[in-house]
Design brief:
Layout lengths: L29 H6 L2 H8 L1 H15 L12 E6 L2 H17 L3 E5 H6 L10 E7 L5 H13 L3 E6 L5 H5 L2 E4 L12 H14 L8 H23 L6 E6 L2 H17 L2 E5 L16 E7 L4 H13 L3 E6 L12 E4 L15 H13 L21
Parallel strand pairs: 1-2, 1-3, 3-4, 4-5, 6-7, 6-8, 8-9, 9-10
Helix pairs in contact: 2-12, 3-8, 3-9, 4-8, 4-10, 9-12, 10-12
């Protein structure tokens, strides 16, 4: 397959379907569509530049007082919503690259579960929050620090925040601050900070290569994902990924839900066969976020979905020597960017798809339905 191809191999009949949005309104006209999600659009396209800025700041302060992962018996990553999915990817990265036991928990689970059990050895909480003001995450950090006498490392775009006050150490993604409600560049930037902290012993992050590759992906393949997001016959979205890519798949599905109000779900890649595939049909798009070492096995799931009429896209770190017959489109996302840095490159194209689909439906992703940028709660005690 030509990896630069941007057209699906199989032509499919488009069903007669209403183009009305979920609220019953008609599709927005072309002029008003381009005015929707202007902040989100700018933040999506600025990601490669912001990555370089964030990693430059990280490099300058990487050796100043940050805790070493191997100093702890257990490391817990936490967040809410998008940052919980980031925590999932970071925990998987830590186990894969450092062999240190790690797990990810939603901050609410830390608050609601019994905290009477003390760890046998040193314990670290890595608390992730874009705003640094999310109530559950700040409270989880307080519980770990005060009740469990554990260390807290905060990853946030707002270091001078309540979460920053609870943390002994901070990884700051300040250049990635956002005005849109939905997280795009903040997520990928904080993901890169997580990778940088976990793999400090491997040397400097390839910041320039990341920026170049990110800009090339958006320029070369962004228009295809715009068109894909505008397809009216696509009604169900399945995002697949294993290991550290599973958290990315969860985040990608959430972006489609938030921006477009569409039915989007994420699964570990091979798990699609175990029940969810019953919902796959000709109105489905299945996107696989794939690592080259597992590509032949994971692409078989795309083949199964394709046989049911679904459109299938494989986002693979490296395609050299690979043939993926189950994918209508196979794109190499990493270029010269090695693991784990190339994880950030899986998301911007899905961001483009979600933005285009929101505009097609007359929705404004800058202000999604029923959402706010920060969730702040009043606790009864």
């Amino acid at each position: 397959m030509n990896r630069s191809s941007i057209e699906f191999q199989r032509a499919r009949r488009r069903p007669e379907a209403s183009r009305d949005g979920p609220t019953g309104g008609r599709r927005a006209n072309s002029r008003s569509m381009t005015n929707l999600g202007r902040a989100t659009e700018a933040e999506i396209h600025s990601q490669p530049m912001i990555w370089e800025d964030v990693l430059r700041v990280f490099r300058q302060g990487a050796d100043i007082g940050l805790p070493s992962p191997d100093a702890y018996e257990e490391i817990v990553f936490t967040g809410c919503g998008s940052t919980y999915f980031l925590a999932m990817s970071a925990a998987s990265l830590l186990e894969d690259h450092a062999g240190i036991p790690a797990r990810a928990l939603p901050a609410s689970e830390i608050i609601l579960s019994s905290q009477d059990r003390r760890p046998v050895g040193p314990r670290l909480l890595v608390a992730i929050s874009r705003s640094g003001s999310t109530t559950e995450t700040v409270e989880a950090a307080r519980i770990f620090r005060e009740r469990l006498d554990a260390d807290v490392l905060a990853i946030t775009c707002h270091p001078n925040s309540p979460l920053g006050a609870q943390a002994g150490d901070i990884l700051s993604a300040e250049p990635a601050q956002e005005s849109s409600v939905v997280q795009t560049r903040s997520f990928t930037s904080m993901l890169l900070l997580s990778a940088g902290w976990i793999t400090r012993h491997l040397g400097e992050a390839p910041a320039k290569e990341l920026r170049n590759q990110g800009e090339q992906l958006l320029e070369r393949h962004g228009p295809f994902f715009d068109r894909l997001g505008s397809e009216p016959d696509l009604q169900r979205f399945f995002i697949l990924g294993g290991g550290a890519r599973h958290g990315l798949a969860r985040e990608a599905a959430l972006k489609i839900c938030e921006m477009c109000l569409d039915d989007a779900t994420a699964y570990n890649t091979l798990e699609l066969r175990h029940g969810p595939i019953s919902r796959v049909n000709r109105e489905s798009l299945v996107i696989g976020m794939i690592h080259h070492e597992h590509a032949q096995i994971e692409a078989q799931v795309l083949r199964d979905a394709s046989a049911l009429g679904a459109r299938t896209v494989a986002l693979v770190d490296h395609l050299e020597g690979l043939t993926l017959p189950g994918a209508d489109i196979a794109l190499e996302v990493a270029g010269a960017v090695p693991d784990p840095w190339n994880l950030a490159l899986y998301l911007p194209l899905v961001h483009r798809l979600a933005l285009a689909r929101a505009r097609e439906k007359g929705l404004d992703p800058d202000r999604p339905s029923n959402l706010s940028a920060v969730i702040q709660l009043s606790w009864a005690g």
